[in-house]
Amino acid sequence: xxxxxxxxxVWPSYHYEPRAEQFWPEKDGEWYTVRRGTPxxxxxxxxxxxxxxxxxxxDPAVARQHVELAAKYGVNTFIMDWYWYENAPCFERQLNxxxxxxxxxxxxxxxxxxxxxxxxTLWNMHTDEHELVWDGKVSRKDFEPMxxxxxxxxxxxxxxxxxxxxxxxxxxxxxNLIVGLGGVEETRDALDWLRDKxxxxxxPGIHIQFIIRRGNNNSPESAxxxxxxxxxxxxxxxxxxxxxxxxxxxxxGFDHGDYVKWTEAAIxxxxxxxxxxxxxxxxxSIGWDNTQRNPSIMNAIVNATPDAFEACLYRAKxxxxxxxxxxxxxxxNSWNEWTEGSYLLPDMRWGYRYLEAVKxxxxx
Length: 364
What we know:
By secondary structure, the chain is an alpha/beta fold.
């Protein structure tokens, strides 16, 4: 039977990160916010209670439990949100101390999604103000040593996910990448340097993946460095290998409050994305609820049930099956985005049913 690479994003904030103590003073990460979730409208599914408890996800034993749990239900790849602020890594302990040791002697893999967005006070649940804390843009001078560290520390690991032998490296914000590097031509030169550097390490190359972005403040149209180039032209201009989504809210916004309508609007973008990218890997999101982080937000995606999610997974599987020449990779949001209402980990309401939906659709 066909094997699918089912990859779930990981938000590595459920452990102590000293640099983020200003947001989460109880020293166990964003569990601080999860514990304080309150309902904002009638029928609002809040607060959320993790069935496995408020775990330290940088603990190797916890990470091993998660790797085994994921594999049991057909999730065999983790896409780790990876951060680099003020020329230093952030939220990296979960990867280094937890996930990588936990992947040893397993068939599961991981790859990095460079979450190169600006960090602001969104992570402070007590304010609606979005004041800049860390700038996500990186200059060429800082890009090269940053990527040399990534290559040496991660790309050569047996557990790193590859396509055609090439390590996959995903980038969240193409706009921030280009603005930081100084323009489209400068970014192409930096990415070509990266390709050469990876090959110099004995690898066959690198598979660069973009998170597909749409009309928001990260859009290329907002940056002078794009010099009139449209978003549709970027993948070709930069030699990008594939595109996928991170969250359906970036594809469908809030206009569709019902889960089914919301996912239909997002899935409808796949045909459009195929025109811009050589390969599009389909995505499925479990839901969207960002109320915990924002005191004034009073709406969320509703009716995001496991059965509705299962139907969305079938759409992703059908897409992959209709593209037999590409790697059967599907991305999911997410493994543990508790404060965005989109997680596979079991909770007190639905138990393991989201994981069971994945197993039903993709597992052999």
